[in-house]
Design brief:
Layout lengths: L1 E4 L32 E2 L6 H18 L9 E3 L7 E3 L11 E2 L1 H9 L10 H13 L2 H10 L1 H15 L3 E8 L3 E8 L7 H17 L6 E6 L8 E6 L5 H52 L5 E3 L5 E4 L1 H7 L3 H4 L11 H8 L15 E6 L5 E7 L4
Antiparallel strand pairs: 1-13, 2-5, 3-4, 6-7, 7-9, 8-9, 10-11, 12-13
Length: 376
């Protein structure tokens, strides 16, 4: 929307009238989306597990406080600089990311629902079962836990930006894994419990027997790294021989499937990066236009405003974007005309360039402006 002061070369001489209507209260205080630190792919199996075992009430006890909340906003996958209130479907979509703080709070909420001495450990095992198919676990059984943990290492690198997973030792009946937190991120005992459950769940679902896991070192308790030792029952000679034969035939096919999946994820990430770059270029043009310009969402919230609109309105960008609506500045009658659809169902644009409306600024002063509206 372009807003042109009618007499832009002359100071406004009319009598200022204070608006009697209260200004719109901010819809949320946090204008920016959360930093992209933990991918929502990490929660993909958790919500189905909760719904299956604890019903809708259980799901809401875990995620309800975040849905539609102004405290945690998520970056729109179609317009990455745009902040959205969280919906449940976002937490099941690997195109979305949340902050480490959000992840810790979400996992911690599991204690509200799961009545077990080790609730987060139990939930993580259930999430593994819901998120991975039986065929994946069959292949894992054939290829072995070393291969499974190697894939877990790759997935952690792609879907988690807070820590690295390092495989330090792997034997016939044990493995030692390290979680190394990246600078700026604090360890959480709840996240340690979550990872204990994930690794145990992977091993059990792949068919390994007598799986046990111990966290021998913990960053949350002052150690340099979190270290997990996993043990399982060693296979007999015949089973190991049979598995080695099948393994040779599966290795090539599985390698291709994994490569195809990783490439599809990379393609999606590249697309999001291009969207971000395009949006940044568009924002640069938008910011530098000499006419007061705003972008208005369907609910009339102003999502973007340029410097010239700041000057016209008297508000700063931070006060405007995501908080104020079009009704802050225009009377209801003007808004109805602006949004009135043409015969073809689109909003009028070119003929509105000469339409005159009255604009109310931050101080309640009114001035006549010319407005042009277009759909984007």
């Amino acid at each position: 929307m372009l807003v042109d002061p009618k007499y832009h070369n002359e100071p406004y001489q009319g009598n200022a009238r204070r608006s009697t209507k209260p200004l719109n209260a901010p819809k949320h205080e946090r204008k920016q989306p959360m930093p992209k630190e933990v991918n929502c792919n990490n929660f993909r199996g958790l919500i189905p597990y909760l719904r299956k075992n604890y019903g809708e009430e259980g799901v809401q006890k875990i995620i309800g406080e975040f849905i539609g909340s102004s405290e945690y906003l998520i970056a729109d996958k179609y317009a990455p600089s745009k902040a959205l209130p969280i919906k449940e479907e976002h937490l099941m979509d690997s195109a979305y990311w949340v902050s480490s703080d959000f992840s810790v709070r979400l996992i911690g909420n599991l204690r509200k629902v799961i009545k077990d001495p080790d609730p987060i450990f139990v939930a993580a095992q259930g999430a593994v079962k819901e998120s991975l198919s039986k065929s994946v676990f069959f292949i894992g059984r054939i290829l072995g836990l070393k291969k499974m943990f190697a894939q877990a290492q790759k997935l952690n690198a792609r879907f988690n930006r807070t820590k690295k997973l390092v495989i330090t030792e792997v034997g016939d009946d044990f493995a030692v894994l390290q979680m190394r937190y990246l600078p700026g991120f604090e360890a959480s005992k709840d996240i340690c419990d979550w990872h204990r459950g994930l690794y145990t769940g992977v091993a059990k679902q792949a068919g390994f027997k007598d799986v046990k896991i111990v966290e021998t070192h913990c960053r949350a308790e002052g150690d340099e790294y979190c270290v997990f030792k996993i043990t399982w029952k060693k296979e007999n000679l015949f089973a190991a021989l049979l598995k080695s034969i099948v393994k040779r035939s599966l290795k090539w096919a599985v390698g291709n499937l994994v490569a195809e999946y990783e490439e599809s994820v990379r393609d999606r990430d590249r697309l999001i990066e291009k969207l971000t770059e395009s949006e940044e270029r568009y924002r640069s043009v938008f910011e530098n236009t000499a006419t007061p310009t705003i972008i208005v969402e369907e609910d009339l919230t102003i999502s973007m405003a340029n410097v010239e609109f700041e000057k016209l309105s008297g508000y700063t960008k931070n006060q405007i974007e995501g908080s104020l609506t079009l009704s802050t500045f225009l009377p209801k009658e003007a808004i109805k005309i602006v949004l009135k659809p043409d015969a073809d169902g689109t909003t009028a644009n070119d003929d509105l360039a000469k339409r005159e409306f009255q604009f109310t600024d931050k101080h309640g002063s009114h001035r006549d402006v010319l407005i042009k509206v277009g759909l984007i």
